[in-house]
Amino acid sequence: MKPHPRTKSKSHLLLTLTATLLTWASTSSMVLAEDIIVHRFNTAATAANWTKWWGAAATTISHDANFDAAGNIASGSLKVVVDFNLATHGGDNQFAIRGALSGNGDLNALVVDASKYARVEFDLYCDPGTPMRPWGDYGGLDVGLVPTDFSQIWLTNYGVQVGWQHLSIPIDPAAGNLSSIGGLVFKMWSGDAGWGQTGTATFWLDNIKLIPIGFITDFDTDAYVAGGGFWNWWGGAARTVEWDSTKDADGDVASGAIKISVDFPGTGDNQYSQGMSLSGSGSYNSGVVIATPNFSRLEFDLLWDSASTLPVETLNDTGDPQGLGIGFASPTWGQTWAPNANQPRVVADGAWHTVSIPLDPSWPNIPGLVFKKWFGSGPTGSMVYWLDNVRFIPSSAAIPPPTMSLAKARKGLNLFASQPGGQYQRQGIQAVSADYVWWIGNPNPVTYSLTIVDTPPGPDFQTHVFLVPDGTGNAPDYSAPHAIMLDIRRQGESGGVALFRSKTNQPTGNSQMYNEGVLASLSDTTIAGTWSLRFVNDTNVTITGPTGVSTNFTMHPEAAALFMPLFNMYTIFGVQPNQAASIGGASVISRIRITNGDLTVVDDTFPEETLSADWENRLDSPQGLFVVTEEPAYWISWTLPDADFTLQQAHKLGDAFADSTLTPLLNGTRRHVLLRKPEVLDQSYFLLQKPAP
């Protein structure tokens, strides 16, 4: 089974076992981001940057201090008045105006490579007295870039409507001559003999921006708040999110920032989680998605309110995560948390600070951000901070090719924490046959047991049993008011520990489970083997470990009585990673058993590749459940990103490789395939293939 490297060609590497792995990759790079360029027309002098370029239609350009897209009395806009006359001007019935990016009229004073920019944005107002075209718009406005050689690169033609309009026009990176852009051009041609316009057209332009690739928003307006781009994701701490026009990281009086205020009560569900869609258009909206492999880091500007009563030391050094608490939403709206070492540390000096958080190219693509802090019981106080200028910085590094590996698959139920970015994902199965079995008021003892074959290394990954009266969903330990969890984790290299966690009267929260709700713990010298939770009667409980060690404890009668269901006892066996590094790990369970006195309710050793009717999936990621029925079996897996790579297979060396019929599945920051018989017993060779550029 030892891999043997063999060179097949300059672009191929071959590894063999009984299954063979091969990868090929090309290199690619991204440019570094540029600064955002903004023309707000705050002063009369800004009009001098713009000049009529061509066209027979008389055109006047001026600054209008009384008209601003945001209604800002300290700003203004660029007013353009055009006298169209088809009869007089014929085919030259048009206008074009040009402005320099520098703002001083000189195309060479500020020159950019527009391939590093994503779009041109601006606000446009059309006076209703402007002559209309027969099909109902008020002219076709061409928008273009001006290179320093005074040519034009046209981006779009927009059918103008009356009133304020916000336009966002993408820049095609494949367009030629983008490397030396010094200005912008706006043009309207109306020389068609059939529909050409005659009359006075009046337009206002405001907030013209050249937006770098990866730039999300500078919070010019309250659009992200008004559009539902921020939402309360979870947590019991009271919080407000509002747009504040009095704060701006750049001191721009025509812009603003987002203000987030949180009050931590010190008890109950003492945490908050605030979501932000990058699109700014509603919660869980994927209108804007950052392709993580193409970007190196997230940046934003942060200002801490020194009047906050929560000490910055408490914020920076305690809780989860430590520091401010920033996470990245995945396409399925799980969360990937920046490691504590990369979390922003708040500085309470009354100044704006730029925060920079590195991205891992294997993380899922990003449609949103999450701002979160969990304290559990203890810390109290208020915190207030402002956010501005959210941007992702393109990467200049080559995207690494995927690397492949092979691991033995263990026989039994394999439950993977497969959801990308899902640090607190629940991956489980519900015992349907146990719905009508509970211990409260039962003359018989009720026992829940599971036999663990293996779990990932480290103390974070948990294998659990949930017992929830009248529960629903995949995370009843959080959502339901009353819940019990037997939480089993590694202790040291090979030992195990089981904790009995409980909560009562705490819907949409679980802080009790990690504080006063821990009623007992049991350590054993091994995690592999059978763990059981036995309710002798309403209040007396026993936990037993794989070597036969046990502990007994008593629940308070009033708390125990709350676990009498009205309808069913929701019983789930599952896993949860708890740390980003544990995503992609799996627990292997060879047997699950539930007894009610002498009656066996469930006894499953998972002999088939599909689950029996005793089970319903309670999976945040359906790709995380496998049943391995025979050994030998193996996992082929590889790292992400793997764009354009295809798994191929051949039955012997020398045969042509063809696309494999096996389906790779996403598993956290990797993709994997289970090799069962006959793939394992028959000699097979596998490779990842990417076409050469």
Can you characterise this structure?
This protein is mainly beta and 693 residues long. Helices cover 3% and strands 45% of the residues. The protein contains five helices and 47 strands. Strands 27, 29, 34, 35, 36, 38, 39 and 41 form an eight-stranded antiparallel sheet that branches. A seven-stranded antiparallel sheet has the order 33-32-31-30-37-28-40. β35 (540-544) and β36 (550-554) form a beta hairpin. The longest helix is centred in the middle third of the chain and has 6 residues, at 312-317. The two termini are 33 Å apart. Mean pLDDT is 92; it is low at 1-33.
Strand residue content: over 45%
Give Rg in angstroms. 31 Å
What form results from the Cα inertia axes? elongated
Helical content band: under 10%
Query: Total strand count, please?
Result: 47
Low-confidence parts: 1-33
Structural class: mainly beta
Q: What would the average pLDDT be, to the nearest integer?
A: 92
How would a crystallographer describe the biggest sheet?
A: 8 strands, antiparallel
Please, how many helices? 5
| Cα separation of the termini | 33 Å
List the helices and strands and how they pair.
Blueprint: E1 6-9, E2 12-15, E3 21-23, E4 37-39, E5 50-54, E6 58-64, E7 77-84, H1 86-89, E8 94-100, E9 117-126, E10 140-147, E11 153-159, E12 163-170, E13 181-189, E14 199-212, E15 215-217, H2 223-226, E16 228-234, E17 238-244, E18 257-264, E19 271-281, E20 295-304, H3 312-317, E21 326-329, E22 335-337, E23 353-358, E24 368-374, E25 381-394, E26 404-408, E27 412-416, E28 427-431, E29 446-454, E30 462-469, H4 476-479, E31 483-491, E32 495-503, E33 518-524, E34 529-535, E35 540-544, E36 550-554, H5 557-561, E37 569-576, E38 586-596, E39 599-604, E40 615-619, E41 625-628, E42 634-639, E43 646-650, E44 658-659, E45 665-667, E46 670-675, E47 685-689
Antiparallel strand pairs: 1-2, 2-3, 4-14, 5-8, 6-7, 7-14, 8-13, 9-12, 9-14, 10-11, 10-13, 15-25, 16-19, 17-18, 18-25, 19-24, 20-23, 20-25, 21-22, 21-24, 26-42, 27-38, 27-41, 28-37, 28-40, 29-34, 29-38, 30-31, 30-37, 31-32, 32-33, 34-35, 35-36, 38-39, 42-46, 43-44, 43-47, 45-46
